Target: Four helix bundle protein
Amino acid sequence: MADNIIKTKSFNFALRIIKLFQFLKDDKKEYVLSKQLLRSGTAIGALIRESEQAESKKDFIHKLAIAQKEANETDYWLELLFQSNYLNENQFQSIKSDIVEINKILASIIITSKQKLNTT
Model:
């Protein structure tokens, strides 16, 4: 059985977010933005996991659409942390590439799922 790419990538991303949260909290003494980042960044994978147990194709699409919204929010918090100098360029670019990739994969799955739903 093939690996579920989005499931794996979102889980690994959540682990990175947890480590980044710990760094921001312990080293940078930043508590508010980092908590928002932790919440949205870990919600992505949780929603993807939840979509595996969707009650219908529409429910599956809906859960992934919420995961995509959380990914967009996570991207916002990362940008804010970078622009406010809590993250340096290397830290930001490293994790930014991950969230961009996750967003692209989610968009592709949602589009494909909607197309399949409309043809059945």
Summary: DSSP finds four helices and no strands in the chain.
